[in-house]
Structures are given as C-alpha cells and as structure tokens.
Amino acid sequence: MKSNQNNIKFIIHRGSHQIGGNCVELVAPNSRILIDCGLPLDYDEQDPEIQVKIHEDAKEWLNHCDAIFLSHYHADHYGLFNEAPKDTRVYATKETAELMKISGIFGEDLTEHLDIQPIEDTVTVKDFRVTKFDVDHSAFGACAFLFEMCGKRILYSGDIRLHGKKGVLYKNLPQNVDYLFLEGTNLGRGVRQKSEDDVRDEFIQQFNSHPDSAFLVWCSAQNIDRTVALYRACVNSKRNLCIDPYTAYVLNLVNQCNDKIPSTKNHSNLLVYYPNRFCSRLKDKRGDIHKEIVANSTKIQNDDPQKNPSKYVFVFRPNLLDFFRKHLASTSIRFIVSMWAQYWDKDTPDLKRFKNWLAAEPELRKRLPDIHTSGHADMASLQKIVEHVQPKCIVPMHTEMPEKYKTLFPSYTVLNVIDETPIELINTKE
Ligand SMILES: [Zn+2]
Ligand SMILES: [Zn+2]
Fold first, then answer.
1. Could you tell me the distance, in angstroms and rounded to a whole number, from the CA of residue 252 to the centre of ligand 2?
2. How far apart are CA 308 and CA 303, in angstroms?
3. Using N-to-C axis directions, what is the helix angle for 196-209 and 224-236, rounded to 10°?
4. pTM, whole model, 2 decimals?
5. What is the pLDDT of residues 330-352, one digit of tens each?
6. Most exposed among 54, 210, 330, 364, judged by the fewest C-beta atoms under 10 Å?
C-alpha cells in the first residue's frame, strides 16, 4: 500500500495565488492528467515576452498528459487549450462540450484539434477514476471533479457558488476526501452575495423607475443565469428583451439542453437585433450560422426603439455600438453594467468609443448603478461547502488570499501551496 505513495503527487502550475488561469497536474505511477489550463485574467495587460512565456509554459504542461479535465468553459480555465497536442483527450460535461464549439464560430477555435468527450458520470483514465459533480457557477454546465487514485481522493471544486439558482447542488459533493482544492475568489470580501432573483428584482425596479427610457445592459452572453434574470425582469415590466446574434445563438444552444431556458425560436418578447459590423463579419465567416439565427428568430423593427423606448431592453457589448449609434441616437437611454465592475475600467478601443458616446449626450444617456452578483461563493458559502465535504486538508485555489483560509477554516488543515511546487500526497490526518 505504502510503496506507491511517493509516486503520487500534485503540482499547481498556476492558480495557488491568483484568480483564474487555473492549471493543476496530478501525477500517479503510470499516468498524469491536467485539470483546466486557463488563460490568466490579466493576460492582455502583460508584456509580449510574458505572453509568449505563458503559452510556452502551457505547451509544456499539456505535453504528454493522458487527459485534461475541464471544469467549465470560462477562458480562465480553458483559454490555453490551443497549446495541447493534436487529439489530446478532454473530458467535460456535455453542456461544456457543446458551448466550447461557440468559440470557434464567433472567434478563434481553441479546441478544434482536441478529442472532447462528454463525461456523464465517472470515467477511468489509467490510474485515475474521475467523477463529475454538477455545481452552480456563472457558466452553464460547470462541474467539480473527484479524482481517486492509489487510495487517495482529491476533490477539485472548480468555480462554485451557492447563491445561484442551483446552489443546493453542493450538497451532492462527496465527503471526507483527503484534499479539497477550493476556490476562494471572494475571500477577504466580507459581503454576502445576492441571488439571481435579487438581481432580477433590481432590474424590474430600475425598468419601472425609468419608463420613458430604453435600457442597455452590459452582461456576458455566456452567463445564462443573468440573461434569464434579465428576461424575467423584462416579462415583469412588459418590455422586450433584444439580444444580438451571438447571445441568441448561445441561448438557443442551451435551450436544447434545458427547455426552461428561453429561446428566440418560441418566445415572442425575445427579439434579435443585427449590428452591421458584427453581422457582416459573422456572415463572411459563418454564413450558415447567421442564416440559422435569422431564420429562427423574430427580428426587431429597427425604428421602433426610437418610437417606443419604454418597450425595450438590449443586451449590450461595447463592440455592438454601431447599432445604437444608428438607431437610438436621439433616444433616452439608461445603461447598466451587469458584470464584474473591473471590466468597466479596461482600456479597450471599443469601450473607449462607447464611453465617449455615452458622455456626448449626458442628458439623454445615463449610467445607472451596476446590478450584479458574483459567480463565486461568498465566505459563508465557502464555510458551508467545507462543513459538508469535511476534507482532511484544504488546498487554496483561484484566490488572491490563500493565507486567509486558515482564519476562515480554523478547525481544518490548510495546505498553502506555491505554484510549480510538487506536493507528495502523504497521509494528512489519520
Ligand atoms: Zn475562474
Ligand atoms: Zn468561471
């Protein structure tokens, strides 16, 4: 029994001291696997030499691994998959596997060369027996993984929260594991996170308080829970929700996995608007997809928001500004950021253009307070997860404050790890 133990180890390549960019390697006597291989969230702000190094490192980590397990389709978890050798086996939930195809349609395809296998329940890869557990996160189809090898059990939480619609799923997580790799994005932020229902109610309140304005809401098209909250708020306040072709495609794809998610194919108050610049690029690249969206969706009457602003809420992104410039130039607009506040501070050309457009008519166009809730567990929720799982040892991940885990979990063993340091799996508390 004991003889094999020195051959089992884990290495956190990245993620022990930062939010996002996760990559963890598990090594057993005859095999090794990777969990996630994400792009660091600050990648765009890095110098070119550092960006090159990020790709080179990923290539090395991804080389010769027997499989990759992907927890969800956010870029900070799979954004470096293009560095994996051809035909590398990737396991992900069927929802994640479906949604990953989107990147290839609307942007660069990072996964086309990979052998992506949907994981239903449990798979075995040489020394590893791996089971997926669905969790709630701001990515549809997110999961945690339990890795069992050579008598040891490691639970990797992935990104997780309890305040979303499916927060209760954490109660299905396995218990008494040897190691719990636990995300801690919100560690040190003492605020309780509100629910998506609270978010919906805040939208309703704002929509009703500004009955003469059209609304632009900047949210991620891939945050399905948010689009649904927004849709429900629109139904409640008798407005149409207008989405761009990308958001429509994502929503309709998810609707095929879960018919409770509204789709532009059968919800008459869910309309599609077609920004020229975005659509001509999509038409050139994927005419078939463009046609499919147009054929199956109700198109907005372009002149109606100007005439009846109170009937409209738009899902917005800065790169879609040309539509609003053209059709809502003299319309009263209220703008809400419904995503992580720091995105507003980024310095991208599209965002700069949008900020200038907003500021050009301060009476007509006003930014209201942000309406958002995190995709990550708050501190009380992290405690609930740990109380349920009862791990022998907690390993901080996806956090800028690993040192705070000891304070938050005083009766547990916490193993603070440094990126790239191999950790032999020894008996933690017998
Ligand atoms: Zn993440
Ligand atoms: Zn995530």
1. 21
2. 9
3. 40
4. 0.92
5. 999 999 999 999 899 988 999 99
6. 330
